[in-house]
Specification:
Elements lengths: L1 H16 L22 E4 L5 E2 L2 E4 L3 E7 L4 E5 L10 E5 L2 E7 L3 E6 L7 E6 L1
Parallel strand pairs: 1-4, 3-9
Antiparallel strand pairs: 1-2, 4-7, 5-6, 5-8, 8-9
Length: 122
Protein backbone atom coordinates (compact mmCIF):
# COMPACT_ATOMS: atom_id res chain seq x y z
CA UNK A 1 0.00 0.00 0.00
CA UNK A 2 2.82 2.41 0.90
CA UNK A 3 4.48 1.75 -2.48
CA UNK A 4 1.27 2.59 -4.30
CA UNK A 5 0.95 5.90 -2.44
CA UNK A 6 4.60 6.81 -3.13
CA UNK A 7 4.29 5.87 -6.81
CA UNK A 8 1.10 7.91 -7.20
CA UNK A 9 2.75 10.90 -5.47
CA UNK A 10 5.74 10.68 -7.80
CA UNK A 11 3.49 10.55 -10.90
CA UNK A 12 1.52 13.59 -9.68
CA UNK A 13 4.70 15.54 -8.96
CA UNK A 14 6.09 14.85 -12.44
CA UNK A 15 2.80 15.77 -14.10
CA UNK A 16 2.62 19.03 -12.15
CA UNK A 17 5.99 20.12 -13.55
CA UNK A 18 4.62 20.01 -17.09
CA UNK A 19 7.93 18.96 -18.59
CA UNK A 20 8.03 22.02 -20.87
CA UNK A 21 10.94 23.76 -19.18
CA UNK A 22 10.56 26.94 -17.23
CA UNK A 23 7.48 28.01 -15.34
CA UNK A 24 4.23 27.55 -17.22
CA UNK A 25 6.02 26.16 -20.27
CA UNK A 26 7.14 29.51 -21.75
CA UNK A 27 10.50 31.22 -21.64
CA UNK A 28 10.67 34.97 -22.16
CA UNK A 29 13.09 36.13 -24.87
CA UNK A 30 16.13 38.06 -23.71
CA UNK A 31 15.74 41.85 -23.59
CA UNK A 32 17.02 43.84 -26.58
CA UNK A 33 20.54 45.23 -26.29
CA UNK A 34 20.78 48.72 -24.82
CA UNK A 35 21.26 51.61 -27.23
CA UNK A 36 24.86 52.68 -27.83
CA UNK A 37 26.26 55.47 -25.63
CA UNK A 38 25.61 59.08 -26.68
CA UNK A 39 28.00 60.06 -29.43
CA UNK A 40 28.23 56.51 -30.76
CA UNK A 41 26.54 55.22 -33.91
CA UNK A 42 26.51 51.50 -34.60
CA UNK A 43 26.55 50.43 -38.26
CA UNK A 44 24.69 47.17 -37.75
CA UNK A 45 24.78 43.89 -39.61
CA UNK A 46 21.09 44.39 -40.50
CA UNK A 47 22.01 47.46 -42.61
CA UNK A 48 20.83 50.16 -40.21
CA UNK A 49 22.53 52.89 -38.22
CA UNK A 50 21.64 52.81 -34.52
CA UNK A 51 20.53 55.32 -33.49
CA UNK A 52 19.28 56.81 -36.74
CA UNK A 53 19.75 60.25 -35.19
CA UNK A 54 22.20 61.30 -32.52
CA UNK A 55 22.45 64.73 -30.89
CA UNK A 56 25.73 66.18 -29.64
CA UNK A 57 27.24 69.54 -28.69
CA UNK A 58 29.43 71.50 -31.10
CA UNK A 59 33.04 70.35 -30.80
CA UNK A 60 32.05 66.80 -29.82
CA UNK A 61 33.11 63.60 -31.49
CA UNK A 62 30.91 60.83 -32.88
CA UNK A 63 32.30 57.31 -33.01
CA UNK A 64 31.00 55.22 -35.90
CA UNK A 65 31.27 51.55 -34.91
CA UNK A 66 31.37 49.19 -37.87
CA UNK A 67 30.44 45.58 -37.10
CA UNK A 68 31.13 42.43 -39.17
CA UNK A 69 29.38 43.73 -42.32
CA UNK A 70 31.22 46.42 -44.31
CA UNK A 71 29.70 49.93 -44.41
CA UNK A 72 30.76 53.51 -45.06
CA UNK A 73 29.51 56.99 -44.12
CA UNK A 74 29.01 59.67 -46.76
CA UNK A 75 27.65 63.07 -45.75
CA UNK A 76 24.85 64.34 -48.02
CA UNK A 77 25.91 68.01 -47.96
CA UNK A 78 29.48 69.19 -47.91
CA UNK A 79 30.15 72.57 -46.31
CA UNK A 80 32.84 74.09 -44.12
CA UNK A 81 31.52 72.31 -41.01
CA UNK A 82 31.06 68.86 -42.53
CA UNK A 83 33.65 66.32 -41.42
CA UNK A 84 35.31 64.05 -43.95
CA UNK A 85 33.39 61.07 -45.29
CA UNK A 86 34.34 57.59 -44.09
CA UNK A 87 34.86 55.91 -47.44
CA UNK A 88 35.70 52.36 -48.37
CA UNK A 89 34.27 49.20 -46.89
CA UNK A 90 34.72 49.29 -43.12
CA UNK A 91 34.18 46.21 -40.94
CA UNK A 92 35.20 45.48 -37.35
CA UNK A 93 36.63 48.97 -36.80
CA UNK A 94 35.60 52.24 -35.17
CA UNK A 95 36.15 55.62 -36.81
CA UNK A 96 35.68 59.02 -35.15
CA UNK A 97 34.56 62.31 -36.64
CA UNK A 98 34.42 65.67 -34.82
CA UNK A 99 31.56 68.11 -35.48
CA UNK A 100 32.55 71.73 -34.75
CA UNK A 101 29.67 73.67 -36.36
CA UNK A 102 26.03 73.54 -35.22
CA UNK A 103 23.59 72.06 -37.72
CA UNK A 104 22.12 68.78 -38.93
CA UNK A 105 24.40 66.46 -40.87
CA UNK A 106 22.59 63.81 -42.91
CA UNK A 107 24.62 60.78 -43.98
CA UNK A 108 24.15 57.47 -45.75
CA UNK A 109 25.97 54.25 -46.62
CA UNK A 110 26.80 54.01 -50.34
CA UNK A 111 26.98 50.22 -50.10
CA UNK A 112 23.44 49.71 -48.72
CA UNK A 113 20.68 51.88 -50.27
CA UNK A 114 18.26 53.19 -47.66
CA UNK A 115 20.80 52.98 -44.84
CA UNK A 116 20.96 56.52 -43.49
CA UNK A 117 21.14 58.64 -40.38
CA UNK A 118 21.88 62.10 -39.06
CA UNK A 119 23.95 63.93 -36.48
CA UNK A 120 22.34 66.98 -34.89
CA UNK A 121 24.96 69.38 -33.53
CA UNK A 122 23.78 71.98 -31.02
Amino acid sequence: MMRTILAASLVLAIAACGGAGGYGGTVAPPPPPPPPPTGTVDANTNDTFNPRQTTIRAGSTVTFVFKAVGHNVNFDTQNSGTPADIGGVNANVSVQRTFNVAGTYQYHCNIHPGMSGSVVVQ
